[in-house]
Amino acid sequence: MKRPSVPLRVFFTLTHDCNLNCKICYNDTKSSLSNPAEEVIKMVLDRIKESGVREVILTGGEPFLYQRILAVIDHILAAGLNLRINTNGLLLTDELIAELEKREGVILTLGIDGTREESHDFIRGEGNFRKVLSVLEKLSQKEIGLYVNFTVTKKNFRELFRLRSFLKRFNVSQAIINLFLGCGSGRDHRDTLSLSNTQRLLLHFPWVFSLFGPGPKMRVITSCYAGQTEANIDYNGEFFFCELLKRPLGNVLKKSVKEIWDSPQLLKLMDTDAFGTPCKECFFRKSCRGACRAEVFSETRDLYAGNQYCLKGKLLNKLPRIYFNLQQRRG
Description:
Elements: E1 9-13, H1 38-51, E2 55-59, H2 69-78, E3 82-87, H3 94-101, E4 106-111, H4 117-124, H5 128-139, E5 145-152, H6 163-168, E6 174-179, H7 190-193, H8 197-202, H9 207-210, E7 217-221, E8 230-234, E9 238-240, E10 250-251, H10 257-261, H11 264-268, H12 285-288, H13 293-300, H14 311-316, H15 318-330
Parallel strand pairs: 1-2, 1-8, 2-3, 3-4, 4-5, 5-6, 6-7
Antiparallel strand pairs: 8-9, 9-10
Helix pairs in contact: 1-2
């Protein structure tokens, strides 16, 4: 895919505060600023709209901790932007759900990290599985778009095979499968939660999981889209390569979104020829773009180091070499 002139979607950090302390969280610190200025937020959103971005995904922290979130939602919808909200769902009261149902075009993406109580609560805390299922049940009876974010780990990998049938009863339209990344709080749980090479390999064939019963569409995220089609901007206008890599590249209240999007420092984070091995020698480097730069930085403190955890670099990269060698021998 040709890189667009501006991001297709922006993950908009509304607050860093959260009501949970998940083992998979990419944030390792929480901000004391739980209610940033609404006027500034709207100015930042206007700059995003003016740039030509099509979609905003509200994230955090937990977005519903922001007291004026309905006003922010109204501002985004009035601007004609597509809107998704990433949430753990635990703050969605009956009154708030009723307000969201009045607003056409809102899609909620709830975090579900297991089809069993033990799996989900191991990540998100005791008692939260039952709470989020109660919220899902209520949402399934409303006219609100509903997605699920599922972070796959060593603990819950097998549950992918029954995820679609599990979610079908809640009228979830899409399940977004994210790989566990050992950065932020997740760095402390790598040994327990990191996927094996075999599990990572299977995730490159998502149709396998779709064979096990009917249910929502499953979208498995195995490549990074940061800098290619996505970016992260926070409530103060700070522009980041992604949500996980908290190194500001500029501020959209001082520079245009496009100017930062095309800046040398952002483009360098996508230049796999500048990365260390195995990335710079990998057959898939142009499509993979070094996988997760935040995970690499968390381990090496080097933004341009090669990704030693990348399965493509270790295994799949060998396949085309084997194929070409066989072709040469036949020739």
